[in-house]
Each structure stands twice: as structure tokens, then as C-alpha cells.
Amino acid sequence: MLFWLDPLLIVFLAITFVISISLHEYAHARASDKLWDPTPRIQWRLTPNPLVHIDPLWFLMIFIIQFGRWRPVQVNPHYYKNTLRDELLVALAWPATNIILAFIATAFVLFYIRFTWVTGLFEPDMIIRFWVIFAQLNIALAVFNMIPVPPLDWYRIIKYLFPSAWFWLEKNTKIIGLVFLWLLLLPTPARWGIISIITTVSQVLYWIMHAFWAIIIF
Length: 218
Hints:
This protein is mostly helical. It has helices spanning 7-34, 39-42, 50-53, 56-65, 83-118, 126-145, 157-161, 163-171, 173-185, 189-217. The chain has one domain (2-217).
């Protein structure tokens, strides 16, 4: 619930979601456009403008029920020259964007710490807190979107790796998506299990990035 969070954390999360979701959707649209699909361009989705990508009501739901959604970019794989390969590339654009943002944010945190240590000004502050949250949340978004379950686009990877399973998945997309949604919304062990897995994987990836930049910077 909203009251569980302190005001500063709400602001940090809101800024992070706005930036990350907008660039996340923009990358998806741009990738499909580069592969000759005019659909994102026709629907005016080739922009990082948050007003185009974010649904205000569902954005608010993120802070109320810890679940939300954004306006998904629609693509038409029929325009792709190599359907399976290009669908996979477009699906990869989503998590890749969030990982790149997290990688940059982690580097900024360590460069900032290095600079403030050198100048004798170092102490934990809001700048570090924001960029750590930004990095960790982007990694979590990438990990979440890599779950191969509809309506998440990463489920298209199954078409590429397991064509026989794809037909069953495509046939039952609505049912599977509805079940997955309820697993995320209802306070059941499945929900906490999914959250725990995403959190654990995200933390491991964050500390790998942190270690990488620490070796380079310090």
C-alpha cells in the first residue's frame, strides 16, 4: 500500500518508473520499426515521451497494489523479413534497455562515490540512494519481462527455441495470461515465490555490475 512507503521513496520510484518504462517501450517500438514494421510509427510510439507510453491509472496502481502496466507497443511480425529471428530481436530490446540503464546507473553511483571520497565530501546521500534504486529497479524490470509467459513479450522466445510448445501456448494465451495475472495479484505463496525469485536474481545481477565497475573505478 501507498502508506508503507516514505514520500522520498515514492518520488524516486515514480521517476524511475517514468524514465524506465518510457525508454523500455521506445526501444521496443524502435527495434520493430528498424525491422520494417510500420505499426509503431503509425501509432506514434516512436518517442521516449512518457505521456505516450504510460497509462496514468495503472501507473498509480503500482503504488497502491504493487502491480501495474503500461501501454504496450503493438507490432506486426508479418512485416519482418525473418519472422522468428526478428521477433526475438524485438523481444530482446525490452530487457536489454533496462539492463543498459542499470549498468549506466551503477557506474554513476561508483564514480560519484569515488569523486566524493577524493574531495573528502563523501557521506551517503539522496543522490546515491536514487541511483541505486534506479539501477536495481531496472534490473528487476528486465528480469520480470524475461518471464516467458503471456502477456509479457518474452514468451515469444518459446517460438524461437521450442516451436512445438509455441502452438499450445499461443492457443491458450488468454487463459495463461489471466492465471499469471491472478498469481501476481493474490496474496498467495505463488506471488511471494515469484517476487522472491525476481528479487534474488535482480540482486545478484546488481552486485555483478557493482563488482565490475568497482574493479574498473577503484
